[in-house]
Amino acid sequence: MQYVNIHRPKQIRSRQTLQRITQASLELIAQRGVERTTINEIVRRANSSVGSFYARFEGKEDLLAYLDDRIWENAEKRWIEARDGQWNSRSVSEIVTGLAKLYAELELMHQAARKALAQALRGPGAGPSEPALRFKAKLLEDSRQLLLNRTKTISHPSPEIAIETTCRSLEACAFSLEPPILADLCAALVFNLTGEHHRSESPPKDVEFFDIWG
Questions:
Q1: Rounded mean pLDDT of 49-59?
Q2: pTM higher than 0.90, yes or no?
Q3: Are 37 and 87 a contacting pair, CB within 8 Å?
Q4: Helix axes 179-194, 159-173, angle to 10 degrees
Q5: How far is CA 20 from CA 3, 17, 65, 198, in A?
Q6: CA 173/CA 160 separation, integer angstroms
Q7: What domains sit in the chain, N to C, each tagged with a CATH number?
Q8: Are 67 and 25 in contact (CB under 8 A)?
């Protein structure tokens, strides 16, 4: 993902300043909307200065474009770290319940700010940004692969079809279901894959995927 006008910081303190500006911007945009969020308010909340802002952005439009991309860039980074680490040792049941938690969190991630940014940058009724679509496509493909790597424990006669059904179901439904219903869905999907009854295990708690400024 490329930002044309942002001046990328190299020093740790400068990166921390950019992080504070980013977090303050998302908070204010979520609370007040884009039009009512000013640069002065952003730097005040970020405990920074107008000069520090313009050392990184040429203006408010640059900031908005950066935020629109940065949300998904950070989400993808956190996902890759989790996928390549803890998730390699997950069971089928743990993967399914973990993906359910992930998709539910994804919908809520900076929800109000994302909607305000979409309207400001792409107009009323705008769909997901290109970075959002790229990330979601990657997440879907990675989810398939995680389960395909466990075909030895999948008893369904057509593992690829069962895995596709699982991934698509979670992608489409997880964010809209109440926890008890989502747990039932996970149990049914695991049974379809393995033929074993698993009453919803707790999702992995060692990664908060979208607490991206933590």
A1: 94
A2: no
A3: no
A4: 170
A5: 18, 5, 17, 43
A6: 20
A7: 12-194 (1.10.357.10)
A8: yes
Query: Tokens 């305000």 correspond to what residue?
Result: 116
CA nearest to 130, candidates 64, 73, 171: 73
Residue 39 has what pLDDT? 96
Supply the mean pLDDT for the chain: 86
Calpha distance 129→69 (Å, rounded): 8
Question: How many angstroms separate the most distant Cα atoms in the chain?
Answer: 63
Decide: 83 and 147 in contact? Cβ < 8 Å.
no
pLDDT at 9: 52
Asked whether the CA dihedral 188, 109, 204, 162 is positive or negative, the reply is positive
Match 């921390």 to its residue by tokens: 16
